[in-house]
Write a structure and sequence with these properties.
This is Large ribosomal subunit protein bL28. By secondary structure, this protein is α+β, with helices and mostly antiparallel strands. 23% of the residues lie in helices and 38% in strands. The protein has one domain: Ribosomal Protein L24e, Chain: T (Roll), CATH 2.30.170. A two-stranded antiparallel sheet has the order 1-2. Strands 3-4 form a two-stranded antiparallel ribbon.
């Protein structure tokens, strides 16, 4: 299973994690210094969801981000499925 939302297209992105030490200038220190940088990945908030498609009288399974669930609630499942089929995705 790929870590990609079928509706919004959200996927993991790359970033960095910083190790910081020192006393901030606000607290009368010399300032914060970065002592190490590590690469990391920001993962999307994905869930596998089984939704009832009333027009076809069946369940469909989709890998969705939680923000895509809100989009489905707003626009309706049928319009989202129509867009997915236009893109050529199997639903």
């Amino acid at each position: 299973m790929s870590k990609r939302c079928q509706v919004t297209g959200k996927c993991p992105v790359r970033g960095k994690s910083y190790a910081i030490r020192g006393i901030p200038k606000k607290k009368k220190g010399i300032g914060l210094k970065i002592t190490g940088i590590k690469k990391r990945r920001f993962q999307p908030n994905l869930i596998k969801k089984r939704l009832w498609l009333a027009e076809e009288n069946r369940f469909i399974s989709l890998t969705l981000s939680v923000s895509a669930l809100r989009t489905i609630n707003k626009n309706g499942l049928q319009s989202i499925v129509r867009e997915l089929r236009k893109k050529g995705e199997k639903v």
